[in-house]
Prior knowledge:
CATH architecture of the largest domain: Alpha Horseshoe
Strand order of the largest sheet: 1-3
Shape: globular
Amino acid sequence: MKISNCNIKGIFVCLVFMLASVECVDKLDVQDPNRLSPVSFWKTAADAESGLVAVYSSLPTIPLFGRIGVALLLIHRSDEVDPFPQINVNDAGTFNATPELGRLNEPWGEGYKMVAAANQVLANVPNVEMDAARKDQILGEAYFLRSFIYFYLVNQWGNIPLVVDEVTGGVEEIFMPNSTPDQVYQSMIADLVQAQAKLPQTWPSDQVGRATWGAATAMLGKTYLYTKQYAQAATEFKKVIDSGLYDLTADYADNFSEETTNNIESLFEVQYDGNTTGGWGGTGGNVWRGQAWEADIAPRTFSSQQSVSVNPWVFDLFMEQQTTSGEIDPRAYATMSWDYPGAMMYQMSFQDAFQGDNLTRIWVRKYLNFENETSLSPGEWAGDTNNWRLIRFADVLLMYAEALNESGSDQDALAALNRVRARSDMPAYEGLDQGSLQQAIRDERVRELAIEGYRYWDLLRWGIAAQRFKENPELRTNSNGVFVENKHEYLPLPRQDVDANPNLNQNPGY
Length: 510
């Protein structure tokens, strides 16, 4: 968070550990005079602000959206890319993840730490004597953040525990059973309605990065869309569109550059601070809070990781259509790197950068910081502050088009789709029936949003993930990974949690 540029981004980062620890270590007779407790902590407005910082602080950590939660568990699992095998790193994307995989424990644990911190804010801040308007905003931010992380958890793991109360009693309170996705979504909807009512439309410039009314409204619409409540989804997306607060950037590539973060198209993004003096891990100390996932999508030649190549069907989709002036869709150049005249890879020409079959492969371009020499410079894992855009206006327009089309309103849907295309000088669609418009919207989501972490969840919510991978084994040529239906739709729950919690059942197939 860029809140006074030193608030959310680190000054209270250790608070997360102290607050989250209260969730798990009570009913012990030993008194630690250095440990904060709910009784001694939640007294002042400053306590309320610091407690909220603890919720935000999980977002840019290595386990969540600093690295693992973005590339390894989202981008790698999509059909857009083909991960190379790397044991204990790329296993989720090559469909070899097991319940023992450490790369699952980290985002799962950090995600629930974020839930615990949000639950404490929501339980205790109402009792703090402070400015009523600011109190309401704090609660709105906590509702938004809790719903956001649950959206992530439920789409990654499916039947997850739903914890919405502060844990204050014995250890039995943390042994929660599985909840159904529908139960989680209903809780999220309730949270987002609260957040929408409490959050401001904008913040002062020194508070950029905080959750806003627009972010809450877009997430509410997205939650309705994922639960196939299309009319309600369209209503919420239209509120965002009609607000006039957001627009498409003139240059598509500005959505993936370190110099153009928090622009007019961004509704919510993870704020990185590039603290190169930090270390590996989640909240609780001086940890990296930068864009460490670049190394997981950059070409192997420029990374310490095995990474991925782009599947040829994505390239072919871009090449199917030309701009109104007969050129290649400009989004192709911002999304992929391939052997075309003048192509670069970081500070090298494409021809000099690659040899053999690597020269004929298609590589990721989006979100790579080409001013550097490799994916790990200038800092080891956390030197770049190219924020991950979690919600942007183009996605809102495409989700709005989808919600309208699925509920039978094709003309407004067509207009929203064409607005996205017009930014890139792509010709407008005309006269599409519902089925053709559905496919056009799905294709446009790839052209507009590829390598941004949306695709796998799109396949999952459309009910075609298993079909897509089973009918196209070439999507995993680099690893020969095989998607098993009724298993790989969701990740396995971490073994340590299933073994420790007698009420928690493992996902099917694991």
